[in-house]
């Protein structure tokens, strides 16, 4: 009986390579076994699945510089709402309360931005409302939409700061909800003026974009996605992208 329980535990542990729970307990989202045991059961490459985005679940109006699917695109100048005509479109679905999203952003965010600056891709960020019972997630994702609409030149700097400020408390080993004051710190680092931050704060406290976030999350699930971070490149969705398995995809994008 004990042997069966150990085998079951190992099998369960391999599932959690992305943010999968709304409960702020790291035990529900991170492996509990050794990395060698988990790695042996995981595919060595990212899993690629053909997928098409839809928008039938989305009825809310989009903020300025946000596309019809709820994504914030970046072209050569890394300004929200721009794109590189004819280039591959790389969509990243994430949340700064997801430790695996933070890890992905740390590993690949700058490289993806460099590819956008070089005109090789249009990079599109999708705030993904996975953690609907978490105040920090609710307000930080709305803040990303606000910055895209009102300070598009500062979107990248704000997102970087938001993820960086969240990282110490949001880890795979232990996840603690960051204080919403982190949003103000990120705004300061991105150079957003106090009067504009006051406007942002009013809007996100009034949940101006919350319904949109709920609808885009519903659409995400209806489109066949499940976990974050998730990546879509043109018509292909990529999963199982933790632990360096997205690196070969990056190399292909650089060609």
Automatic annotation (TrEMBL):
Signal sequence coordinates: 1-18
Lineage, top ranks: Bacteria, Bacillati, Actinomycetota, Actinomycetes, Actinomycetales
Domain Thioredoxin-like fold, chain residue ranges per copy: 86-243
Pfam families (alphabetical): Thioredoxin_4
Keywords, in A-Z order: Signal
KW 4Fe-4S (keyword) present: no
Annotated region described as Disordered, given as residue ranges: 22-46
Alphabetized InterPro entries for the sequence: Thioredoxin-like_fold (IPR012336), Thioredoxin-like_sf (IPR036249)
Name of the molecule in the record: Thioredoxin domain-containing protein
Low complexity: compositionally biased ranges: 26-41
UniProt cross-references to Gene3D superfamilies, sorted A to Z: Glutaredoxin
